[in-house]
């Protein structure tokens, strides 16, 4: 016998005496409540000051900020999708107090009003976390990652290609002038003064072509040369104007994307087929403590080493002083960065290149590695595997890419010509020389002791769990 079927009633048209409070629909420990609570505590005066007043009422920046933060927490970045959520999603409705700003209001707020203010808001949030005891901003774990821009993959502009093309134009101009000289020589006439082709610009090239045309006027010249001059007059000044514009966008970089001028092409981690990937990216540097991000900076250079000081200068701007302790991986261990940390009293648990390699048995037992040569401090000399003294012969200066001056001491073995170990020791001619950067070696010695200490091992482990566990999404341009 078939039993009675009962369905739950749908009473949406039923009026209620006491209207439902939308807040009852948001669970007590819902993330939106945390967003609401935190942003309520933030001082938004600097942001409010920018409102001119008068006219119609504006959406409060607190409301808009809550909407944005909660949307980003949920990976919603499109202003139109946020607008839709404000009409359809009960959490957004509660958070916004039933306000429904449209997509252009949201975009104006984040693109214009929040510009240059977001970092200060971020700082306030971190300081709130410090107050609550979640974060210790004096002890950092720092790392960097490349975040892919939302730019077209094939939209690259290369600085090197521009330099090569300019060089080609320079060479062709010189060839054309050579032709002028040949013509004058043949006709035994006095040659016109040679234009200066060392620095080329649209105006200079235009003037040079006019000069060449002038010099060859009334001369019997080859058809090919005539064609080349016509081509040059039509194209080269325009090309050079284009190159100048591109160079202005490039700045110090070697590349940028045509669809996102701020993004630089960087080598990112290999894909699953081990193919190297070159993508339009930003280099994001970030420091954490207790897995909370406490500082972030965005850079256009792909190398982490160069970003270290800028990143920590920004930290000082935010919190008034440098951190006391910083732990990083080997990407930051340069002489310049060690000097910077020392000068600013940052205790640096910063690895250097070869830190892990030099711990290996193979490395330690390789008698031909200069790192394993005993040093005699009294005589200022090293001892090579054959027992010869390697004496100090010269001091040299060199400069890093950033222009940082390094002092290098050169040591040379007395006589390698008859040495039976020569084949295994080195490949060059003459006696073996080694180059020692004493300041860097001093820093490496300090760093090695720190990193291998009990505290160092603990911090290195914590670094992997702390800063490396942060995840990032692709950002829009
Ligand atoms: S080749 Fe020269 S530096 Fe090397 S072990 Fe022989 S003597 Fe020493």
Structural class: alpha+beta
Unreliable segments of 5+ consecutive residues:
none
- Please tally the β strands and state the result: 13
The run of helices and strands is: HHHHHHHEEHHHEEEEHEHEHEEEEHEHH
Bound molecules: iron/sulfur cluster
Shape: flat
Mean pLDDT value: 91
Helix content: 40-55%
How much is the radius of gyration in Å? 33 Å
In terms of quaternary structure, the protein is single chain
Report what the structure shows.
The structure is a single chain. Helices cover 42% and strands 17% of the residues. Helix 8 runs parallel beside helix 9. The longest helix is centred in the middle third of the chain and has 28 residues. The chain has 477 residues and is α+β, with helices and mostly antiparallel strands. The termini are far apart. The strands form three sheets. Strands 1, 4, 5, 6, 7 and 8 form a six-stranded mixed sheet that branches. It has a five-stranded antiparallel sheet with strand order 9-10-11-12-13. Among the domains are: 113 residues, no CATH class; 99 residues; 75 residues, no CATH class. It has 16 helices and 13 strands. The model has no long low-confidence stretch (mean pLDDT 91). The structure holds iron/sulfur cluster.
């Amino acid at each position: 016998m078939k039993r009675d079927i009962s369905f739950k009633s749908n009473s949406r048209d039923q009026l209620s005496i006491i209207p439902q409070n939308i807040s009852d629909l948001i669970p007590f420990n819902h993330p939106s409540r945390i967003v609401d609570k935190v942003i309520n505590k933030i001082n938004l005066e600097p942001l409010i000051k920018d409102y001119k007043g008068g006219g119609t009422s504006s959406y409060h920046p607190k409301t808009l900020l809550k909407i944005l933060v909660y949307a980003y927490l949920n990976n919603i970045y499109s202003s139109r999708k946020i607008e839709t959520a404000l009409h359809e999603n009960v959490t957004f409705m509660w958070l916004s107090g039933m306000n429904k700003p449209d997509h252009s209001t949201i975009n104006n707020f984040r693109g214009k009003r929040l510009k240059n203010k977001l970092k200060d808001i971020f700082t306030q949030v971190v300081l709130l976390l410090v107050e609550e005891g979640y974060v210790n901003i004096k002890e950092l774990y720092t790392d960097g990652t490349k975040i892919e821009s939302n730019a077209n993959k094939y939209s690259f502009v290369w600085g090197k290609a521009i330099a090569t093309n300019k060089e080609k134009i320079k060479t062709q101009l010189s060839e054309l002038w050579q032709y002028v000289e040949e013509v004058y020589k043949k006709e035994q006439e006095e040659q016109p003064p040679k234009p200066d082709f060392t620095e080329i610009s649209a105006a200079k090239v235009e003037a040079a072509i006019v000069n060449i045309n002038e010099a060859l006027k009334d001369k019997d010249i080859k058809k090919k040369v005539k064609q080349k001059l016509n081509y040059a007059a039509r194209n080269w000044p325009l090309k050079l104007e284009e190159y100048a514009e591109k160079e202005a966008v490039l700045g110090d970089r070697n590349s940028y994307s045509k669809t996102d001028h701020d993004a630089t092409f960087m080598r990112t981690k290999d894909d699953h087929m081990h193919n190297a990937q070159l993508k339009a990216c930003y280099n994001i540097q970030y420091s954490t403590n207790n897995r909370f991000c406490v500082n972030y900076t965005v850079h256009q250079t792909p190398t982490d080493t160069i970003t270290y000081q800028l990143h920590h200068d920004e930290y000082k701007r935010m919190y008034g002083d440098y951190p006391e302790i910083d732990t990083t991986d080997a990407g930051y261990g340069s002489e310049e960065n060690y000097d910077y940390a020392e000068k600013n009293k940052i205790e640096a648990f910063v690895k250097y290149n070869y830190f892990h390699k030099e711990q290996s048995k193979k490395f330690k037992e390789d008698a031909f590695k200069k790192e394993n040569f005993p040093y005699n401090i009294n005589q200022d000399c090293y001892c090579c595997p054959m027992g010869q003294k390697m004496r100090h012969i010269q001091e040299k200066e060199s400069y890093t890419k950033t222009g940082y001056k390094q002092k290098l001491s050169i040591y040379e073995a007395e006589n390698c010509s008859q040495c039976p170990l020569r084949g295994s020791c080195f490949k060059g001619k003459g006696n073996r020389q080694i180059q020692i950067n004493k300041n860097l070696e001093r820093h490496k010695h300090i760093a090695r002791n720190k990193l291998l200490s009990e505290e160092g091992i603990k911090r290195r482990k914590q670094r992997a769990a702390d800063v490396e566990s942060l995840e990032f999404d692709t950002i829009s341009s």
